């Protein structure tokens, strides 16, 4: 790496942070602005590897010096942002959100944030937009890389540097492409599948200088720059990390290897690059809290104000924290090291203090716990279809009512179980698997969260086949209630997997395709001499209803039209228009009753989300345990289902 400061690299940092901020703010056409993080990875690998290489060649590399410089460069600004986010958290986050935030703080302080968020990205986990320290995952990936790189370069003979880094890069890239189609969350967050991006920068730093190669690469400078500008607007790949990340990383490497001449545009972008680290740290928690205040997407003016505030605050953070600490002299090393250690301990405990200080007499964790119905044993995993109904998934030895479906079916069960009486109830459910025969929904893109690959669709079809076989062997079950939101079966972000004999075909979602699958299930159940009824899903909202109810009870900051936490009937009908069309079509084609408690919850304009202070919902659509019981008792739901089945 040249010893002189390179304005063009600082300009690349400016471009990277602009892409990320505008993507997170949903401003402009940057559908893949998240690729700014990939640009950061390559730049980081190039600069840090160049530094280590130079110091090793001059026999002056020190592990202590390296990590000390990294700490004073990164930690002070990061700690200020963590502290500010912690102070604001009780004003905007629910009890569940606060506890998750505490884990996020620990992850940020220990550079394991990527692992924390990987664990928090489960089916029932909160949306990414609700996690104030989510962006620390990328810092964790970098620091994990730099726990390995110095040791590798120090212990490996120099003649093996290029081969070693190239081999690790290729292995990581192959692993990334393999995992991305199977577990996108792991591919996104974890070091083994992100290693290759930082390693591309390292490889560039280790390449021997060659004027002839540099001359040829200079011809690619303009195409590389165009790629960095076009790919974030018009991505070509369906999964991430994938083809888009590869193209962006290679384009970034070319620009690093062929320095650009200074120009007004480069110098202007470099000024943004100067505050890129502070802006990256600050913008995300600001946007998270603004969106939390509005419950759903805020008005454009609020987003623009949040971005403007982030830029101004970043200038201050850079001027008064980042730069002074980065330039701290040798005499202050002991004081800075002890100060950072004390700050780490303090910040690690501070969320617990915030939780205790805002603790409510109401146990929101209990009232909003995940509703598994009769229990986790009744929720079957993909690839492990049930052989029989587990004993814990029956309320009597010979239940007469079977509840079959996905997580919405689970949420119905607690209330039905307490009101069905001696008839008894059994539960067989699988997350995200809507009840149908020969058809299932899966995610159209791996960028969808949560992501369900085509293999999940096959598992869902087999699960439903297996439930039908179990039903055949349990003649005491006379009534089958199927339940689901049915939204994925007709959603624009999904595809349908249809069975044709021994093969499967992928087709676009449609009301007709989903209706045929549900009709096939109804006919198959009736062919066994059983009666069947469909339970319509409860009204849903575009915001997290359970979170809203809790924050309203806690007196948190809430703005906008949804601050009363009620569901607008017009919004619900618009959001679920295709689902309602599907249910109407199934009712006619399959001659089956669709039982709804819409009239109980809703008037002409709004739907209730709480009754007598009890939360009916635990999140944006699933009923809470209390909500399930209240609705079942007040609507006599079990009795209605048995009576309506045919």
From TrEMBL:
Where would I find the Acyltransferase domain in this sequence?
8-318
What's its membrane topology?
Multi-pass membrane protein
Cited InterPro entries:
Acyl_transf_3_dom, Acyltransferase_3, SGNH, SGNH_hydro_sf
Where in or outside the cell it occurs: the entry states: Cell membrane
Transmembrane regions: 12-28, 34-53, 74-93, 160-180, 219-236, 242-258, 279-295, 301-318, 339-358
SGNH domain span: 389-633
Tell me the superkingdom of the source: Bacteria
Q: Does the keyword NAD apply?
A: no
Output one GO MF annotation. hydrolase activity, acting on ester bonds
What is the first-listed, main subcellular location in coarse terms? Answer: membrane
**Could you tell me the Gene Ontology terms of the biological process aspect for this record?**
lipopolysaccharide biosynthetic process
List UniProt keywords, sorted A-Z.
Answer: Acyltransferase, Cell membrane, Membrane, Plasmid, Transferase, Transmembrane, Transmembrane helix
Gene Ontology CC entries for this record: plasma membrane
Pfam families given in the database record: Acyl_transf_3, SGNH
Q: What is this protein called?
A: Acyltransferase 3 family protein
Can you name the source organism?
Rhizobium fredii
Q: What does the record give as the organism's lineage?
A: Bacteria, Pseudomonadati, Pseudomonadota, Alphaproteobacteria, Hyphomicrobiales
